[in-house]
């Protein structure tokens, strides 16, 4: 039997054999709450006959934090200068939930012909209760965000509906707004760098063309990051954390750098999203999907609802900082010269989030020079932003709106 979502959420999809529109059941105890009743007005397609399923286009799993230890807390805790800034220790393993992706389209109703991507969560027999919980959380988060009186924001992927199969699989149907992710873009861009460098001098005879190529890449990367941060700012403004933002969680409608003017990045993968409304923080409503976040908050001295909210937002900003580092390095380096895990290890373990020391190290590696030059724009504006987003003190990290207004993100340095 599928788990019910947290008290702020709507009931999960429940469609077996002859589907009935039970995505927002009128008899749900959750739907009668004042604070969530307007969510039932969301118009999602809940009839499986309204969809046509196409080919399998991919699959992926989630990483799972299996244990945690942090610095001691309290007035008697002692820290050496070397301890400050070190990250908490986590044992990370591959989670049991495997997601499948299919293409398809809406086959009936006013949205007939609309292309969709199905995100399929396994039933309890294959994925356990965690799979049901993640599917329900993703559904409820999208329904909440899409019910905003200000309308649906363009930098979030749009959920059109979904259904449950007789085997318990949860099929969520998202509007198909692009087949590439930021991770795909980074991989393809780095391969182009490798190909150009492999050609040697024959590839650089036209200095003007080379400069234009670098300018286009810089502009594309900034617009990509800007779109991701707009989506995150929208979520934070509406009291939701993303909690799994990264290169793979950003959908792109184009990866052609000459088409940067048409680029619309959209956030996806909201299965681990967390509600940070004060009413829920006051009630201390914690699910297994968010307990790791609140353990980290407690270890960092965030106990009150206000401090926990600030910590949660800062935690998202930290992950967005790692995304920024990825976008600043990988597309400008040869394939294999840098990847997300190596970059994170370099920043966190080798240099303990000392960005100036990181720059000095990268400056000595010819393979990383184009990335260094990119972050050097505006008298080091990129490094300045990276240091702010990865500040070891969560209270000193900027909010998403401040990141968007930073001169590096506005493009003023280009």
- Strand composition percent: 15-25%
Residue-averaged pLDDT: 82
How is the biggest beta sheet arranged? 5 strands, antiparallel
The first-to-last residue Cα distance is: 54 Å
The unreliable regions are 1-41, 64-94
The percent range for helix content is 25-40%
Q: What is the 3D form?
A: globular
Number of helices, where a helix is a run of at least 4 consecutive DSSP H or I residues? 11
Secondary-structure content class: alpha+beta
Q: Cα-atom Rg, whole angstroms?
A: 22 Å
Q: Care to count the β-strands? A: 10
Strand order of the largest sheet: 1-2-3-5-4
User: What is the element string, with H for helices and E for strands?
Assistant: EEEHEEEHHEEEEHHHHHHHH
Organism: Ficus carica (Common fig)
Domain Protein kinase: 51-409
GO molecular function: ATP binding; protein kinase activity
Protein name: Protein kinase domain-containing protein
Describe what this molecule looks like in 3D:
With 414 residues, the chain is of the alpha+beta class. It contains eleven helices and ten strands. The strands form three sheets. A five-stranded antiparallel sheet has the order 1-2-3-5-4, covered by helices on one side. A hairpin with a 5-residue loop joins strand 4 and strand 5. The N terminus is likely disordered.
In short:
This protein has 414 residues and is an alpha+beta fold. The chain has helices spanning 124-146, 182-198, 207-237, 278-282, 291-299, 305-329, 340-350, 355-363, 369-389, 400-404, 407-410, and strands spanning 51-69, 89-106, 115-121, 159-164, 170-175, 180-181, 240-241, 250-252, 266-267, 274-275. It is globular.
């Amino acid at each position: 039997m599928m788990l019910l979502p947290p008290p702020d959420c709507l009931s999960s999809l429940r469609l077996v054999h002859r589907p009935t529109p039970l995505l927002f059941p009128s008899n749900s105890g959750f739907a009668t709450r004042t604070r969530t009743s307007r969510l039932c007005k969301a118009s999602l397609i809940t009839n499986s006959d309204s969809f046509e399923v196409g080919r399998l286009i991919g699959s992926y799993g989630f990483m799972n934090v299996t244990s945690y230890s942090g610095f001691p807390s309290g007035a008697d805790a002692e820290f050496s200068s070397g301890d400050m800034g070190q990250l908490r220790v986590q044992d990370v393993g591959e989670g049991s939930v495997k997601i499948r992706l299919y293409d398809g389209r809406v086959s009936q109703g006013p949205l007939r012909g609309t292309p969709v991507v199905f995100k399929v969560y396994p039933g309890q027999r294959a994925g356990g209760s965690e799979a049901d919980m993640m599917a329900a959380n993703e559904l409820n988060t999208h329904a909440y965000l899409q019910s905003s009186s200000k309308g649906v924001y363009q930098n979030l992927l749009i959920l059109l509906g979904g259904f449950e199969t007789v085997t318990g699989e949860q099929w969520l149907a998202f509007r198909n707004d692009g087949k590439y992710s930021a991770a795909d873009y980074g991989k393809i861009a780095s391969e182009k760098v490798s190909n150009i460098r492999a050609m040697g001098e024959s590839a650089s005879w036209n200095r003007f063309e080379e400069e234009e190529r670098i300018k286009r890449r810089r502009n594309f990367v900034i617009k990509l990051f800007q779109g991701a941060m707009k989506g995150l700012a929208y979520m934070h403004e509406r009291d939701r954390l993303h909690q799994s933002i990264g290169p793979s969680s950003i959908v792109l409608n184009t990866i052609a750098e000459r088409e940067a003017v048409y680029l619309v990045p959209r956030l996806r993968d909201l299965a681990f999203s967390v509600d940070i409304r004060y009413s829920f923080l006051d009630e201390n409503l914690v699910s297994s999907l968010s307990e790791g976040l609140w353990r980290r908050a407690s270890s960092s001295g965030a106990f009150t609802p206000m401090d926990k909210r600030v910590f949660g937002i800062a935690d998202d900003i930290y992950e967005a900082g790692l995304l920024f580092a990825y976008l600043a390095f990988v597309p400008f380096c040869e394939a294999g010269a840098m990847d997300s895990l190596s970059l994170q290890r370099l920043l966190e373990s080798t240099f303990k989030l000392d960005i100036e020391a990181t720059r000095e190290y990268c400056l000595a590696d010819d393979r990383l020079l184009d990335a260094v030059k990119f972050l050097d724009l505006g008298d080091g504006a990129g490094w300045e932003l990276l240091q702010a987003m990865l500040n070891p003190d969560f209270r000193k990290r900027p909010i998403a709106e401040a990141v968007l207004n930073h001169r590096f993100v506005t493009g003023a340095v280009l």
